[in-house]
Amino acid sequence: MKTPKINKDNCGCSIEDLLNENIEGREERLCGASPSDMEIYVEPDAEKISYEFYMKKQTDGLPIIPPTGERVRKFIEFSGLKKDDVIAVLPPRSGKATVEKIAINSVMAGCVPQFMPIIQHSIKAISNERFNLPGVNATTHPVAICTILNGPTANEIGINSGAGCLGPGNIANATIGRAIRLCLINIAGAIPGIGDHATMGSPSKYSFCFGEAENENPWEPLHVERGFDEKESTVTMMALDSPHNVNDHRSKTAEDLMDTIIDTAAVAGCNNSHVPGEMLIIMSPEHAKTIADDGWSKEDVKNYFHENTLVPAEFGDRGGRKLDEKWVIDGEVHITRSPQDVVVVVAGGPGRHTMICHGFGTSSESVTELIKLKDNVAASSVLDFKK
């Protein structure tokens, strides 16, 4: 009997084509999109699985993709490592973030396998002692973890660095940040009210991930500023408050525009006001152009911001820790310790807006991690990990 020809587009598996990957080393099959034809008939009840995970406090409250063995396997293949390899140990529970566990949480978050190298390097970065993940996870402060992507890999996976890059609408921005949060919940034990003691939390704790608009940047991008090559790819992890908008459609000079940004940032009640530390400034391309066209470099921006962003000491001393007198100068406190604390990136679409994010003060330092293969060679593509 002649085997009937199967139309792949009608077999119910064509969604796999979105991954642009073929299952390698498999025998000839009727349907090449799945390693087991029968699995499409025994797919778990996604709604039931999602609710069961929720009841076990293993989700962020949103529905998840069931982490079936086959889905997890595809992610492990893109790690370049073995499933039991430990990427990091995450506090407060000291959970071992193995490749397999990171893959499981990435599947649950709705990622595609090509995002796996980004996520595993992000997890490694936040385990750095300078980042102080124990403090970030356990604090009552609503600090969230921000992921900034730079380099060719960001473009390859289609991360949004333009209009709406801090909001909904892009699978990479939404799910990479969410995968990191699920790893913190399920591996680190940062469950709200248990390992995560944030008084109120923040929407940024669901996902906070974007790319820098390097082609729109009049200055060198963040990863180049931090010593990496323009053709290398990095993730930069920061512990931050939710973004706050700076709306300035009228300023025509760098100084006027910077004064608007500074007046928005110089507020009592932020961690920076009593424990000065890093700040993130996300400038729209239009705001960056206004400042650059006036002859200012990025260093000029950082210097001007540091010198002029001040809070009265009497207000700074009302924060979570007693204000150290070493930060007080003429009755005021700089909210950053030095210009190096001012992290400036360019992102967003049309519009004269800037976003500012106060940091976790001296309690956390940002970490930039090179996306590299297991032999320490910088990856030129996420496909290098599969090879």
Overall number of strands: 13
Give the SSE string. HHEEHHHEHHEHEEHEHHEHEEEEEH
Looking at the chains present, what oligomeric state does this protein adopt?
A: single chain
- Per DSSP, the total helix count is 13
Radius of gyration: 23 Å
Distance between the termini: 39 Å
- Helix fraction, binned, reads 25-40%
Output the strand order for the largest sheet. 4-3-5-13
Q: SS-based structural class?
A: alpha+beta
Q: Give the overall shape.
A: globular
Topology record:
Elements: H1 46-55, H2 69-77, E1 86-90, E2 95-98, H3 99-109, H4 116-126, H5 133-138, E3 144-150, H6 152-156, H7 171-188, E4 209-211, H8 222-225, E5 234-240, E6 244-247, H9 254-265, E7 279-283, H10 285-293, H11 298-308, E8 310-312, H12 313-316, E9 328-329, E10 332-334, E11 342-346, E12 353-358, E13 367-370, H13 383-386
Parallel strand pairs: 3-4, 7-11
Antiparallel strand pairs: 1-2, 3-5, 5-13, 6-12, 7-12, 8-10, 9-10
Helix pairs in contact: 2-3, 3-7, 4-7, 9-10, 9-11
